[in-house]
Amino acid sequence: CINLTGSCLLKNIIIIIIITQCQCTFLSCSRRRKAGILPSLEDLLFYSIAEGQERIPAHKFITALKATGLRTGDPRLKECMDMLKVTLKSTSDGVMLDRHLFKNIFMVSSLMDGVIMLTTNCVLQSLGDTKVPFCLQSCVKPLKYAIAVHDHGTEYVHRFIGKEPSGLRFNKLFLDEDDKPHNPMVNAGAIVCTSLIKQGASNAEKFDYMMSFLKMMAGNEYVGFSNATFQSERESGDRNFAIGYYLKEKKCFPDGTDMTAVLDLYFQLCSIEVTCESASVMAATLANGGFCPITGERVLSPESVRDTLSLMHSCGMYDFSGQFAFHVGLPAKSGVAGGILLVVPNVMGVMCWSPPLDKLGNSVRGIQFCTDLVSLFNFHNYDNLRHFAKKHDPRREGGEQRVKSVINLLFAAYTGDVSALRRFALSSMDMEQRDYDSRTALHVAAAEGHIEVVRFLLEACKVNPGPKDRWGNMPIDEATHFGHHEVLALLQEYNNKYNPPVNTDADKESTEKNLDGMLET
């Protein structure tokens, strides 16, 4: 959970975590805005940073973005940053932004929704050398398999590749009883899987296809290629050539396959470069059911994601796969470059990178991080069994969380904390939610005489000025009873001009579902 005030992170190695529920928040915030439930998001964001001032230094805006975990180089903020540079050059103030200039920076509505999305569930947090490129190596195997299943379907792919852990070293010359590679996570299976990519095309076309597909999975983050690694892999690839000829002898490839061309492409795909940032988005795409959490686009079919995660869980960590499934219980794939691609389904994607390896070829610190992660959070597949030791579950936000949400909202109104209310509004909280007496934040603020809170709720959040509590009292009655005349005048003014938003039945139903979803996720 993260907001504009900061974050709480569990990290002890180079890691990036992307929470993957952003798409729902993005869509729901967008619809709520169209439905008139939220006010101008530009104003809300500006005032949450400006703290009541009409002008802020540009560097303060940048600092506030970085404090949420955002990077100025984030592709989702590219247009914002470009517009900021243009705006600062064209204004005599040079380094100051007022509210109107701030709105000009966020001219694209989807970008504003993106900022809301990033301050709730989809904030990218990093630690360490997260921008250093490294080769995917074996971490590309599940991605390659997912693309093959996406293109051809499970049945076709598994005519050539099995689904079982091999129990042997990843580079053994050994097939199952049907003369097929055991699974796509060992070298033999990955080589056969490579032969299924864009069959009939040239190697150049296949490589371009894979690069563009991986870039879609990475939300257009960095995906490169190391020619030096490719040359080294090809020159020292005798074992893989031996596996290739063995597969050819056993007729494991589709008809008409050029085995040497397949091996060339195999070495090329292992030499694809990523950073922790871009690879974590790929992992998050798998965690998000095939939707890229940054772009919101469907990249992979549900079938391909399901099958990929299943095989990552059973076969993804070389000869340590059984131990990893036992102790961590999450889908993962390691590579000899020191990367571990970890997926927490429906929650987040993680990329750990730490080059020191153990005797099985897995990152030592990466394994330790994954173990520590599930020791604190109940991400293990079977941590949710009854009578099991209780761990923190960040995915669960049931009745207790809804109660906590109401308490936080009403307490902020009681204490006159407008900054907290701005943060709640930016995080898509329902500003009209009620306690057990059907009292709203507006009731509490009116009773306490906090005119700034009342003004914020009415002007910025566009809340209903006349809700009734269980005794039939409205906020205007509270202001009258406690003698807060300025609050009373403000409420009367808004009561006279308030028009409830008129939505179509479809919009109303969609809005209600989105509100329920945001309270439960």
Fill in the keyword field for this structure.
521 residues, Beta-lactamase, Serine Threonine Protein Phosphatase 5, Tetratricopeptide repeat, 3-stranded antiparallel β-sheet, elongated
End-to-end distance, in Å? 11 Å
Mean pLDDT: 78
CATH H-tier superfamily of one domain: DD-peptidase/beta-lactamase superfamily
Shape: elongated
CATH class category of one domain: Alpha Beta
At CATH level 3, the topology of one domain is: Beta-lactamase
Q: How much of the sequence is in beta strands?
A: 5-15%
Helix content estimate: 40-55%
- Structural class, judged by helices and strands? alpha+beta
Number of strands: 12
CATH architecture of one domain: 3-Layer(aba) Sandwich
Tally of separate helices: 24
Enzyme class: hydrolase
EC number: 3.5.1.2
InterPro entries: Ankyrin_rpt, Ankyrin_rpt-contain_sf, Beta-lactam/transpept-like, Glutaminase, Glutaminase_EF-hand
Pfam families: Ank_2, EF-hand_14, Glutaminase
Structure in words:
The chain is α+β, with helices and mostly antiparallel strands and 521 residues long. Among the domains are: 115-376, 3-Layer(aba) Sandwich (Beta-lactamase); 398-498, Serine Threonine Protein Phosphatase 5, Tetratricopeptide repeat. 50% of the residues lie in helices and 8% in strands. It has 24 helices and twelve strands. The chain has helices at residues 22-34, 41-50, 58-67, 78-90, 99-105, 109-118, 140-152, 154-157, 187-195, 203-217, 227-235, 238-249, 259-270, 276-287, 302-315, 321-327, 364-376, 399-415, 418-426, 441-448, 451-460, 475-481, 485-497, 505-520; strands at 2-3, 6-7, 15-19, 55-57, 96-98, 124-127, 134-135, 223-225, 272-274, 332-334, 339-344, 348-353. The strands form four sheets. Strands 6-3-12-11-10 form a five-stranded antiparallel β-sheet. A three-stranded antiparallel β-sheet has the order 7-9-8. β10 and β11 form a beta hairpin. α7 (140-152) packs antiparallel against α15 (302-315) and α21 packs parallel to α23. The protein is elongated and about 90 Å long. It starts with a strand and ends with a helix.
